[in-house]
Write a structure and sequence with these properties.
Distance between the termini: 68 Å
Shape: globular
CATH topology of the largest domain: TIM Barrel
CATH class of the largest domain: Alpha Beta
CATH architecture of the largest domain: Alpha-Beta Barrel
Strand content: 5-15%
Length: 578
Amino acid sequence: MENKEIAAVLNEISQLLELAGENPFKVRAYAQGARTIEIQDRPAVELISKGELARIKGIGATLSQQITELVRDGETALHRDLQKKFPAGIREMLRVPGLGPKKVKELLERLSIRSLGELEYACHENRLVTLPGFGEKSQQNILRGIEHLKKFQGRFLFGEAYPQAQELLSSLVGHPAASRGAIAGSLRRCKEIVKDIDLVAESARPGDLMDFFTSLPAVEEVLAQGTTKSAVRLRSGMQADLRVVAPGAFPFALHHFTGSKEHHIALRSLANDRGFKLNEYGLFRREKPVSCRDEGDIYRRLGLDYIPPELREDWGEIAAAREKTLPKLVEEKDLRGTFHLHTYRSDGSPTPDQWVQAAREKGYGYLGLSDHSQSAAYAGGLKAEQLRAQEAEVRQANGAQKEVRLFRGIESDIRPDGSLDYPAQELARFDFIVASVHSRFNLTEAEMTRRLVRAVENPYTTMLGHPSGRLLLARDGYPVDMDAVLEAAARQGVIIELNANPHRLDLDWRLLKKAKSLGLRIAINPDAHHLEGLADVHYGVGIARKGWLTKEDVFNTREAGEVADYLEKRRKRAGQKR
């Protein structure tokens, strides 16, 4: 083990000891020992063999023993025990520039943040702005530090990758050497997590297009360059691959590089059964190429309806295409409004009037505002005495204009016993309730299932928010029997949220088919805390399509009047059940 590696371990021991509340002198001793061993001009193994290590100022007998153990075994018992006490997510937070053990301890104790992903999400929700010792500037610095670290993780959120892919594609198709181009790969299939960006283009001058691609401003490093394929690393840390094909080959290349592998295996088997051969170069009948203008032609030649990219996971889409039972998938233009938007009154930034203007620009007829409830003190949850002011403000915003209807709601915390925040008489005053879990994720599966089932059985619950509690690349969902929860929601007529925030995309698309089969309605909600967050519905629609949802399956494709009638009837029924 080199001196630099030893120093890194000693530094982490120092940080974890401070996090554990150890004696400050002991904490400083390990930090000083790390600096001392790193600047030695001789390797530690030599110093140990000559018996000189313990005599170096700043090392001493205890540190000498730890370093000797490191060199001999590659680890120390102390470091191993500290790592068990503080999981990888917490240790990763210590790598954020300017975020030392004291601040990590504050985040852990005050906000229960235990991973880099949870920290990033908390920053996006403005949780650190009012936290003692932090503030807005500190929050922005932490976000920048997280972005720097994420460059090297190798996996990226759908919502991070898609805008970069769109920018690259826009540049490519605008070049005179490109006749057409498209995003491919898992990004085109709307997977929630991707490893890289795949692009396919058609050109009679591939060399010119490749030269242009590898010299784009977003490119930090060219990993490989050829006339048919080039790979680059973007300044964001993502890898982007471009494949250029000759005119006529584009539909086959786009289809092949979109995937998935499982879909291709099943489709090629069907093609073989029907006397065809299908690969990335074309569709062939008795070795004779079959001309196809687009992907739709490929499927039609095989006797299938066109299969949208989002469905290509070998989840029954080929059988449905053969039987002409594929659903007409929901589109973003079908949405008439959305719910789960936070304001400045809790941890959001916009005012109701600003949300109205954002809705106008989006072409929406309504929005549902839902700040955090009082249990979420860390997020500025509204105390009972603050609710009247919120109510008056929403009423005033509605009275000032008729174009956008604001529905007044609350994101009510689901308590550990399954009850909702606020008494029934207060819940009855809201137009709708989004019931969500924000704490106590460590319950058993049986306990968490009872918690959520009881919440959806509450007559005031309109929607179940981010049902699994997961944060992508940060935190797995809590243990819960989701089938039982969905079945309970179906019995009670509770709407299930598809949280469109790219960090969540929850309910998982793999469960949407189950929800659909139960007759549940899905609300595609952005869980937005800033005006720009309203655009996240795009990612939610992608996941909805991946889950086979149609316009009819999605609650917020309804017009404002229909939504108002639905919410009013549900509220009256809830009042009758009290």
